[in-house]
Amino acid sequence: MTSSVRRAQVRRAQARGAIVAGVLALALLATAPGGSASGASAPRGGGPGASAGARRVVLAFVPPPRYETPDPHNPTLLELMSRDRRLPALGLLGPNQGNFSEQQALLDMTQGTRVSRSTYRPKDPPGLVVVPSGAGARVPTWRQVAARGDSAPQTIEPGLLAASIPGGAAYVPIGTTLQDDAVVAADRGGRIARVLTGTEVTLPQRVGRALSERRFVVVDLPRAPAGLAFLDRLLAARAPGEVVLVVKQPPYTTPHQQTSPQMLAAAAAGLPGRSGKLTSDSTRRVGIVAGIDVSATVLRELGLAIPSAMKGSPWRVSGRRSVSELQSLDARLRVISGRRLLAVQVFLLVWLAVALLFGLIWDAAGRITALRLGGLAVLWAATTVLVAGPLRPGRLVEMAIVIGGAFVLALATDRLAPWPRGPVLPAAAMLVAYTIDLARGSPLIVDSLLGPNPLFGSRYYGLGNEAASGLSIVLLAGVAAALPVRPATRRDFAVFIAAGLLLTLLASLGPLGGNVGAVFTIGGATAAGAVVMLPGGPRLRAGILAVGVPVALLAAVALVDLGTGAGGHFTRSVLHANGLDEVLTTLARRLELAWEVLRHGLYPLDTVICALAFAYALRHRRRALASVRNAPAWQACFWGGAVGSVAGSITNDSGPLLLVVGTFALMWVAAYLRGRPPSPPTGVSASASSPATASPPAPAPSAASSAS
Known about the structure:
Elements: H1 3-31, E1 56-62, H2 77-82, E2 89-94, H3 102-111, E3 131-133, E4 136-138, H4 142-151, H5 160-163, E5 170-172, E6 191-192, E7 194-195, H6 203-213, E8 216-220, H7 226-236, E9 242-248, E10 264-269, E11 276-279, E12 288-290, H8 293-301, E13 316-318, H9 323-362, H10 364-388, H11 395-416, H12 424-439, H13 443-447, H14 465-482, H15 490-508, H16 518-533, H17 540-564, H18 569-575, H19 580-598, H20 603-619, H21 621-624, H22 632-651, H23 656-674, H24 703-707
Parallel strand pairs: 1-8, 1-9, 2-11, 2-12, 5-7, 5-8
Antiparallel strand pairs: 2-10, 3-4, 4-6, 9-10, 11-13
Helix pairs in contact: 1-7, 9-10, 9-11, 10-11, 10-12, 10-23, 12-14, 14-15, 14-16, 14-22, 14-23, 15-16, 16-17, 16-22, 20-23, 22-23
């Protein structure tokens, strides 16, 4: 299609939109009491469940413009909504956990909670066809919807939103066709209490009548920008205490179809607070709310209790109102996943180039230096990855910042901190950077390639599972490098434990990382490493230590979350669970999700390769750690990292992905240790040696010589 044809189509669409907008405006003026520009002709009071003066909420679904594309000359729905200052709060809404499914997104709004679709039986919801029934409507497939909800390993009640509102909810379609987003107004039985159909020009009248009869009304608007003309009048006529929530209509998908994860435009008028961006306690990210937050927001604004089965949180207004910032955030979230694997590929290619170049210039000594630099670069990448996100760079620029920056810092570190002390610097930098960012609400982490990526809806803040696995090994390597090469003392043991506990609490506490799985990933690695380092060797108390550390950490997380009211994942899933059964089902859900990941794609092969790598390292452990065989802290780093990776894979819903991340990190720590510089010849000082003149590697030094 030529650009001229495309522009002609856009102009025709805009003309049609202007005509429809004009008709709607005339209808609004004609139906307004006393000739005023009101959005409804019926008085807003009376009716079942709607007392005079009671608060009301309208949830309006707006389709995107007909030709909504990345074309900068074609405004997005978010931009169009921003033109009306009567919508003071704007944001992005994460509709799904995982890939996008329209049916699941709508059901999650009705129930106020969500789990991965892979834990339902069947995996996908049935078709949500809505048919008229008396003065309302019903969903014929709702029995299957409810049975599917019962199969999930968590309390799932589709229709809980409308069932929690006296008198139920009303639905107002554009014309006479009932769309599937009407299910947001359905109760536990799949019934919609009131439906008001008619012609498109009578839409304002029907919304006014619905508001006079019910306190919660779901409205379908015409396609933007025409539908926004009615929304403008609806906002102008908004009565005191009336709240309008606006959400981009979820794109249609068939019952068994799913598309790439995406964010939907969202806005609100009438919420407490000034003009700004939407946020909630579910996301803790200014500018982002979750689909499950819709139900909690509606009930709060109606002054009704939020059932414990709802895990969403009400919307709030925070920050500065800026469409460009939200669009930039949305664009950033869309590229994170695709660049993760690219970063690994670029790293391997850069390291290969370095190894070949150094080998070409300095032969064996150059290859040994390349091993050290590769190991240090992996450790530094955990910090350099935080730099790129806020800059919103292109793909190549981000690779240059993350990978190129990591190798530059690795080269400087190798000069400043002689082997094997090098990991101290990247570990210290990582700990400081992540502590500061977590205290600030983790904006850098979330925008980074190592972040949880809110686009997938599993986590919106703090540390993701993969980051917890990788950072634990960075820290353990740094601690091992900082401790003297000698038999472990009580002081060394205490330092190792303290560092591991610090990172575990940073990652798992609700006010900070909010990742309770880190208790098993980082805490398990710390406990296993401490057993190896235990002065006098492992004994009975070693087993008590290995079990006691994670249990004590879980108790600490519970106390802090309850004391601060942080409302993290652990609080919502365990501390506020509806009994022991729900706690057990939550644990079962994690195991089931981990198993589903194991069966997906290349993960079976990845898991086998990781298992072979661990088996090889275990069999040849004397050779692999020969250069630091008298350093228990390094032994603890590898044993702890391996145990933490396995424990995290079993207890976290990311499954074997944590095993892959842990194995990759440990492999490069081992590469750093294998890159021990050759000892200088007799009579030549260490400072005088260089890669070009260094002698072949000498035998591993004794403990005394290494300590000196």
